[in-house]
Amino acid sequence: MLAIDHIVIAAKDPEQAARDFGKEYDIQITEGGRHANWGTYNYLAYFRNDCYIEWLGIFDETTAARSDNPLIHLLFRELAEGHEGAIQFALRTNQMDDAIQHLRKLDMPFTGPVRGSRQLPDGSLLEWRMLFPETNWEVLPFMIEWNKGKNTPQDPNLINDKTISLTTHLTDPGMLSSIYQLNVNDGIVRLDNAELTLSGELNVSVE
Q1: What is d(CA 108, CA 129) in angstroms, rounded to the nearest whole number?
Q2: Which of 40, 54, 66, 171 is the most buried (most CB within 10 A)?
């Protein structure tokens, strides 16, 4: 069973965007870290249903422009065009190798697995892999697999006592079923930790 892992929000100033969101919804925000290989940095908000929101920005445009990571390509393009807001989301898996084999059987183009890492406050290294299914007509959610099962804060007090759910720009139940092996009933996908509602835009709800 896949789970919503996180929603990516493009922001020219991730700290300010995150703090504005935090004030609006009365949630705690925490600084994430820098991804030196991609020229990006983030702020985060964690929720009790094991997912989080990421406000992602660029501190080194040259590095970001040269990245081979599809998410960074998308972020760079959206910010260059003056667009801020939710641009992408990740589905968590602990069986990425199986997912890769499944996409190969479908003859589905993909990029990955793309490895990522950042240093945590205690000096340890958080590592992950990302898998990006690709089409010519829309941006698909990517899959992510963490080396520690999932990304949670070292201080449990940073986990907000609220949950998030998601509506998505994806409207093709057959595609979701085929690529991600998910069941869609009446426009709703029941994931391990939340519901995904097929809609006309990508948006996150906080409750």
Answers
A1: 18
A2: 40
**What's the full length of the chain, in residues?**
207
Q: What is the rounded distance in angstroms from the CA atom of residue 101 to the CA atom of residue 99? A: 5
Tokens 């010519």 correspond to: 136
Q: Which pLDDT does position 130 carry in this prediction?
A: 97
41 phi/psi in degrees, rounded to 5: -150, 165
The residue whose two tokens read 């990508």 is 202
* Residues 70, 139: Cα–Cα separation, whole Å: 10
Q: Are 44 and 164 in contact (CB under 8 A)?
A: no
Q: Which helix (H) or strand (E) holds 175?
A: helix 173-180
Give per-residue burial for 27-44: e unless 16+ CB within 10 Å, then b. Answer: bebbebbebebbbbbbbb
15, 21, 27, 28: CA torsion to nearest 10:
0
Give the three-class secondary structure for 146. strand
pLDDT tens track for 34-60: 899 999 999 999 999 999 999 999 999
pTM, rounded to two decimals: 0.94
Q: Residues near 61 by Cβ (< 8 Å), separated by ≥ 6?
A: 39, 76
